[in-house]
Design goal:
The protein contains three helices and no strands. Helix 2 packs antiparallel against helix 3. The protein has one domain (about 20-85). It is elongated and about 55 Å long. The protein is mainly α and about 100 residues long.
């Protein structure tokens, strides 16, 4: 179990060496996920005061369901970008 934790920590340390664009993709997807969680919290609080309570609850549930998907998609996209752009320095263009 300790070896698994050490392996996970080493993997997370390697994320610091990603390409600049990949870091930006992860940062953007994390921001968008946080915004969706904030939207869900606001909708949850104001849902009893809206004219259509059930629609507000659907918005709340949808935002909660899609936020981790956006984050996971951003991480996968960033890792793919790092595979493609990893051989280039951040200030170089691949052309």
């Amino acid at each position: 179990m300790i070896n698994d934790i050490i392996s996970l920590l080493n993997t997370l340390k390697q994320l610091l060496h990603l390409h600049k664009f990949s870091k930006d993709v992860i940062h953007g997807s994390a921001q968008f996920s946080a915004l969706l969680y904030l939207f869900a919290a606001v909708i949850y609080l104001i849902a009893p005061y809206t004219s259509d309570y059930l629609m507000s609850v659907r918005y709340y549930q949808s935002a909660l369901e899609i936020a981790p998907v956006i984050l996971a998609g951003g991480i996968v996209s960033a890792l793919l970008c790092d595979l493609i752009l990893g051989k280039y320095k951040p200030d170089e263009t691949p052309s």
